[in-house]
Design brief:
The structure is a single chain. It is built from 7 helices and no strands. It is mostly helical. It has one domain. Helix 2 crosses helix 4 and helix 2 packs antiparallel against helix 7. The longest helix is centred in the C-terminal third of the chain and has 31 residues.
Length: 159
């Protein structure tokens, strides 16, 4: 099974012509995996892949490798936490006051059934995007030199 997975990965990686495009493809897939637009990840991957002429199977593999049913809750909670820190702690906004009117019904439901008080739509949206952008930037800066090194291995001299 692992050999088939390795073959699939190698075929996905072989599609890209340059290390920079491969690193960008993976970084964009990481951003999409952390983006807060729940339910639209597949559409985002396909649209970005076709509009930017990127490797769609690799983007799907990376984004769903990161954001899947086992990791979804920690990813969205960490995005919400980042948004809460940015809006509430750093900028001093009352996080629930700026919610749209329809969020009142959701907040009432969450408070009644789960005990959660004042969930902020903006903290969720802003935090998920900030977290996605930061992690995609970190991934790109790590992947690019690594992929360049893998594409151009140093010559070994024996003798």
């Amino acid at each position: 099974m692992f050999s088939r997975l390795k073959q699939l990965l190698m075929r996905c990686f072989a599609y890209e012509a340059s290390p920079a495009r491969l690193a960008f493809t993976c970084a964009l897939a990481i951003y999409i995996a952390f983006s807060p637009f729940f339910g639209f990840h597949t559409l985002m991957v396909i649209a970005a892949g076709f509009l930017l002429n990127l490797n769609v199977p690799l983007m799907i593999l990376v984004s769903y490798g990161i954001n899947n049913p086992f990791t979804m809750i920690p990813i969205y909670l960490s995005g919400y936490y980042v948004g809460h820190v940015v809006l509430h702690s750093w900028l001093g906004f009352g996080i629930a006051q700026a919610n749209p009117a329809w969020m009142d019904a959701i907040n009432l439901f969450l408070q009644t059934h789960l005990g959660l008080v004042e969930i902020s739509l903006w903290a969720f949206l802003i935090g998920g995007n900030i977290l996605g952008l930061v992690l995609a930037g970190i991934a790109y800066s790590i992947l690019l030199p690594l992929l360049i090194k893998l594409a151009n291995p140093p010559y070994s001299h024996k003798g």
